[in-house]
Design brief:
The protein is of the alpha+beta class and about 160 residues long. About 35% of the residues lie in helices and about 20% in strands. Strand 4 and strand 5 form a beta hairpin. The chain is rod-shaped. The termini are far apart.
Length: about 160
């Protein structure tokens, strides 16, 4: 093995450069990744709400002669279709054949009870009429204690024709 020259490592002034660059870049990268994750959770909640409001409005549209409390039934259908959302933070509004009901905050308060299926809110579920449901849910876009949109509310709405 003659002729091979072994390079001897000499200490230099930039030995800690990579550690310093890593220490400076990691907080920025963590902030970006956490922000993307937080936005992803809000988007997931919105997509969940979109699917759930469609399911609940369809359920509401076919309950014409079956229910005396269409708002509560539709709100329960929404919650069953979106189990990962906090029910205390949900706000429901309904428009049954042009008559508005709500807003109701929380699942237990979303009631528009009628004495029979032909009076009150249940009576407004007329075949061929419209049943509109709107749901609001607060979104949390906080990253490391700073909320970038403090008054953010997710809102989804759909209208179905009553069967």
């Amino acid at each position: 093995m003659r002729g091979r020259i072994r390079a001897r490592r000499h200490p230099s002034c930039d030995d800690g450069q990579s550690i310093l660059e890593f220490a400076l870049c990691v907080p920025v990268l963590l902030l970006i990744v956490t922000g993307i994750t937080t936005f992803g959770v809000a988007l997931s909640n919105y997509l969940t709400m979109t699917n759930a409001v469609g399911t609940a409005a369809q359920y509401l549209a076919v309950q014409r002669s079956v229910t005396t409390n269409p708002c509560s039934d539709a709100a329960n259908a929404f919650v069953n279709a979106a189990p990962n959302l906090n029910t205390a933070n949900l706000t429901f509004s309904f428009s049954l054949n042009g008559t508005s009901y709500g807003p109701y905050t929380g699942l237990s308060k979303s009631t528009c009870s009628s004495s029979s299926t032909s009076t009150g809110a249940a009576g407004n579920l007329v075949a061929g009429g419209s049943a509109q449901m709107t749901v609001y849910y607060p979104c949390n876009l906080a990253v490391y204690g700073h909320n970038f949109l403090p008054n953010c509310n997710l809102a989804v709405q759909t209208t179905e024709i009553v069967q």
